[in-house]
Amino acid sequence: MRNTRARVSTAHGGRTRVNTRRGRQLRLAGADLSNANLTGATLWNANLTGADLRSANLTDAELLSAILAGADLIGAQLHSAHLNDAHLDNAILAGANLTGADLTGADLDGTNLTDVVYDFQTRWPDGFTPP
């Protein structure tokens, strides 16, 4: 298996971009990103399976189709994050802030949503009943 090289940069306005070669998937499975400031990060299709994202700030992050299966997001800030079509099966989001987040099409099978914070702007997958 080849490693994917990634470049992390801060764009104008302080937004974090994680770029890989075109067509490559960013592999951060099992990474320790606890307490990381990933505000506004672009992590489309990123593989974050089993990653430690406890208390990470992912406000306004773009995690479209990201794989977060089994990831630990306890207390993470996901305010206004874009989690469209993300794979969150068996992830732990206990105490996470999902106010204004878009989870349209996300896989929430087995996801721990204990004490999650959300509001009327939070968008859930069709047919999903929030806790």
From TrEMBL:
Transmembrane segments: none annotated. Pfam families: Pentapeptide. Gene3D superfamilies: E3 ubiquitin-protein ligase SopA (2.160.20.80). This is Pentapeptide repeat-containing protein.
